[in-house]
Amino acid sequence: MNQMQDAADRSKPATPAALHVDSDWKAQAEAEREKLRKLDSERAATAEAEQAHALPPADFRSIVGLLATQALGGLGAYGDPETRRIVVDLPAAQFAIDLLGVLAEKTKGNLSTEETTELTSILAELRSRFVQIAQLVAAQQAQGGAVPLAANPASSARPETSAKSKLIIPG
Predict the structure, then answer these.
(1) Cβ(129)–Cβ(68) below 8 Å
(2) Is the pLDDT confidence value at 160 over 50?
(3) Which of 89, 93, 116, 124 is buried most, with the most CB atoms less than 10 Å from its CB?
C-alpha cells in the first residue's frame, strides 16, 4: 500500500506550502531595536561620564592653572564650608607664586604671545592679592584679633560668606 499511496501522492497536483507568519515578529524586532537603542544610550552616557571625570590635558596652561589655584588657596580663596571660615597660608601662597615666577623666567622667549600674556597677568593678579592679604594679616596681628572677611579682597566674589566669619592664620 505504501507504494500505491506514494504514487497517488505524486499524481496529485502540488499545492504551494503554506507560509506560516509569526504575528509577533514585528513586536520582537521592535523590542530588539529598543534594546539596542538603550544599550547605545547607556554607552553614550558612560562615555560622557568618563569625559566629565577626565583630567585636563597636560599642557602649559594646566601647569599655570594648577600653581595659580594653589596660590589662591593659600590666599584664602577657598573657605571651609562647615565653619565658613577662611584659612590663609601666606608661605604656601608665596611658594606657589614664586614657582610661577620661576616658570615665567625659565620659559621667557619660548612661549606664545597668548601664553606670555596669560602668565604675566596671572602673576600680577596673584602678587597684588598677596600684598593685600599680607596687609590684612599684619593688621589682624597688630590688633590682636581677627579681620572681618568683608575686608578680604579674595572673598569679595563670595557674597554668601557672612560678616561674622573671621580670617584664620594657621600657626
Answers:
(1) no
(2) no
(3) 93
Name which of 79, 57, 38 is nearest 168 in CA terms: 79
User: What phi and psi, each to the nearest 5 degrees, are found at residue 25?
Assistant: -65, -35
Query: Helix, strand, or coil here: 144?
Result: coil
| Sequence-distant (≥ 6) Cβ neighbours of residue 103 within 8 angstroms | 63, 64, 67, 119
Q: Is the pLDDT of residue 152 over 80?
A: no
pLDDT tens for 109-141 read 999 999 999 999 999 999 999 999 999 888 888
CA–CA distance, 45 with 3 (Å, rounded to integer):
68
**Could you write out the DSSP letters of every residue in 81-130?**
TTTTBEE--HHHHHHHHHHHHHHHHHTTTSS-HHHHHHHHHHHHHHHHHH
The torsion angles phi and psi of 166, rounded to 5 degrees, stand at -125, 160
